[in-house]
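Supplementary notes for students who missed Thursday's class. We covered one full example, reproduced here. Read the sequence, then the structure, then the short commentary at the end.
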Amino acid sequence: MGAYTKDAISETIQPVDLDADKVLAFDVNKPFTYQIEFAFQPTVSFKRPYKGLKVEVAAAGDEESDQAKVEHELLQIQKRKGGLKVVQGRGLQLGDAALVDFDARRTDTGEVFEGAKRRKTHMDTASADMQFLPGVADAMVGMQVGETRDVRLTLPEDFEPAGLRGCDVTCQVGVSELFEYELAELDDSLAEEVAPGAGGAQGLRAQLLKMQQQKSAVDTDKAIDAALIDAVVQAASAEIPQHYIAELGRQEFASKIHIAIAKKEIHPDQAKQLATEESVENYTKHHQEDIAQMVLQQMAFETIFVAENLSVPDEEFQLEYEEAKREFGAHEFDDAKLREQVSESLKVPLPNSRGHSQMLTVHRIAASCIAAGCVALLPHIWTQGWKQWCSTKSTARLHCA
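Structure (token representation):
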């Protein structure tokens, strides 16, 4: 190997002409040669400096939106502590509650939305745009108990996931029961019941606002991190070895199997049947492009980690190691290997990261970008769901008072 040892990916080293005859002919007193093949460790380059990357991020909240979310939470408290009254003599109005059957599919392909099918599900029409699909509650106005209605919607440009933005959707909605809310009065006694020691209704409102402002700040920081991750990956360039893609594909497939078991979506015996080499290869092939981007992301941040001479604090490493160890439970594991994996994971913002510690490199880049004025914080953008709720909240209170 000589000069190539440092650049080779050890897991890829394999002989190409070492057949049985050569092995049998081996003699310690005679020269013995054979050929090997291996993949080189890739080198990451940057098409533009990562320290000067410019991103634009919409703030996760502002004074108006934070106040609106506090009002929404207070209204939910009033609903939970209040009651429901059966509606008679009229159809559905915004602000009502209903038991619904719901299906949604793409209009162009007929493809059913995963997880969209619901039966006898409670719907609060004041926030249905956030619970179901944007625009569905408006289309249900006037529906009677026992009625089923086909609804055509176009998903808004702020819809998540982004791949469905602008998509035409056909929904079938059936109403089996219809109620109106009888709200509990938001007074000091209710506030004390919900949040003892908060200082009455006024104190509860102030407490919720502080919590919401903190959440908006955290969410804004996360949005900046996510934007910078995307920008770094776009700026990075490397030839990705197939071995890396195959290895991460295997890890991602195993992770999905474990999650499915934990959620009791599949039985461990079914997992064993699914966890075949063919299944892993098919998964990796189907998600090749996404996995390659994940590999590039890891490689880019590992490169920055080394270039910036960053290090992981001992206490942070130990916390991450203990959490990783707990995941094994009573199962045996290679302690040295686990420590190595934790050390590597702390350098990069993995998609399935256990915590914020793995964002160390991102935060360092974010700090330098913000200091250099490279992060433009745009005004908060109201989503369609919150627009709909704000337009109906006064109506909801009117019907339920």
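Commentary. The first helix runs from residue 20 to 24. The CA atoms of residues 196 and 290 lie 48 Å apart. If anything here is unclear, bring it to office hours.
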